[in-house]
Amino acid sequence: MMCVASDHGTVHVFSLDGFQKNKQSSLASATFLPKYFSSQWSFSKFQVPGGTQCICAFGAQTNSDTNCILVICADGSYHKFVFNAKGDCTREISANFLEMTDGKSQ
Prior knowledge:
106 residues, mainly beta, 3-stranded antiparallel beta sheet, single chain
């Protein structure tokens, strides 16, 4: 597995050992369409609340049925997501470590 984060807060999980787990367009076999339709899409994806830039990494598994992804965002937020073998994902933990201000003292 490989996880990657976009600059808009979307995290994608790709299966590297079983490419058939990754999703593909139902139009993939149509040779007259652009290559986009035959490309491999992520096995699972989820949106980080707020849509800010973030980085992600796999964390320790909580049990044998789920995988864990840790996400740290530019706005100071931390998220822990878990997903199962089907790609179903839920947010388990969320915290904010930075207080964002406008820079004006009061």
